[in-house]
Design brief:
disordered N terminus, alpha+beta, eight-stranded antiparallel beta sheet, globular
Amino acid sequence: MPSNQEEAGPARASLLDAPLETPHWGRQRGSAFTVRAFTTIHAAPAAVLEALLETARYHAWNRFVPRVTFPNASTSSDGRLREGLLFVEHVDMYGNGRPSGLVKMKLLMTTLEEMEHNSGRSYMVVWLGRGYPDWALRSERVHVISPNADGTSTYDVWETFSGPLALLVKLFVGKVLVRRFKQWNQELKTYVEGRAHAANK
């Protein structure tokens, strides 16, 4: 977890050659790598969590993933992510803004966990990539939302890739993912802070 001093200011993102451990796959080796981004959001952790789970509103703030659909529509009629739910991200990898250019990524939400923190309640959300066989490519994204003593929240997200295809992902879109993760964090920050400001008027 980055220190509070590092968290100040806009979103930051990086590609880590030493992959971070994830809850399901644990510590990955070989061609594994991690893309990570974090930022400070001037809102309570619960407000950040709500925006993350409320996929029906992604179009209002999320240019990286402007749309989410569900293979079985009855499983999430309200568009809200839940544990055990399969969903599909429609990803604008290169920021073209064209609906026809979106790439579909199949995912499974595995975890929604509340944790006690020194400054209050924090949350962890985890989803697994389900677009490729596990032997070919494993991906797991972890979102941690933690409260700070000053009333803000730290949003820290990382995705670790491993398996034979991870090297190709890193080679062809590694740097793009860093930019898009930073964009995701910055747009989430702007959206949540805007809603918090409107609610406090």
